Write the structure tokens for this entry.
Amino acid sequence: MDIRAMTIQDYDAVYALWMNSKNMGFNNLDDSREGVERLLRRNPTTSFVAMDGDALAGVILSGQDGRRGYIYHMCVAEAYRRQGLGSELVSRCLAALKAEGINKAALLVFNRNEAGNAFWEAQGFTVRNDVAYRNKELTKLIRIDT
Ligand SMILES: CC(C)(COP(=O)(O)OP(=O)(O)OC[C@H]1O[C@@H](n2cnc3c(N)ncnc32)[C@H](O)[C@@H]1OP(=O)(O)O)[C@@H](O)C(=O)NCCC(=O)NCCS
């Protein structure tokens, strides 16, 4: 398995994998080619793809804003799950964030995503019960929930 930094050339395969994976949340702007290209331009070192030859086996999309690291989407193709690949992608991502001086990373996962929550628990990502996640759209976004 070859794990390397994601580039925008990977977008079509990555988007197809995202759309085929259940319990993930996307939107029409941030996850468009233009949105992902903007993220990768600002954060060229923190998103990774795992390639099995020409086939995409997994991807982690992540960036940082100078303070926090954020993991946006983590996905391993079904045929490659439960073999440690997701964990390997997370450790590559966290090492890249740490190398950029980032001290904490955060992510969102649907409550209904039991496997996703078990995975993030195993990676040491704890749930905060003392805060409410609030956000506000600056542009109308169309949700794409898989
Ligand atoms: C969640 C996901 C990324 C895990 O990838 P993976 O390569 O299978 O993960 P790993 O093999 O590294 O698993 C590491 C540990 O996480 C936990 N885990 C992973 N998948 C699990 C599942 N389906 N059920 C329970 N625990 C799970 C286990 O503790 C596992 O260790 P173990 O296999 O020794 O028991 C993958 O199932 C996936 O892409 N799911 C769809 C997208 C998604 O839900 N993404 C996360 C939320 S955004």
About this structure: The longest strand covers residues 55-64.
